[in-house]
Design goal:
The protein has 1 helix and no strands. By secondary structure, it is mostly helical. The radius of gyration is 22 Å and the shape is flat. Helices cover 36% and strands 0% of the residues.
Length: 58
């Protein structure tokens, strides 16, 4: 797919996605519509910043 022009790759990806969705629905899968603003994040506690290193003063 890396050798295909970008537009052709997008069309191919779209077709692949449509095939996957059709197979999912045919197998009994269901699509849920999630309201705007709802998050999949389960926990909001804990640090929000990552410390990459601790400098020590000597």
């Amino acid at each position: 797919m890396a050798n295909k022009p970008k537009k052709e790759a997008v069309v191919s990806s779209r077709e692949d996605l449509e095939e996957h969705i059709a197979a999912f629905l045919k197998a009994g899968g269901k699509v849920q519509q999630i309201p705007s603003g709802v998050s999949g994040q389960t926990s909001t506690s804990g640090p929000r910043q990552i410390v990459l290193s601790h400098k020590t003063s000597s």
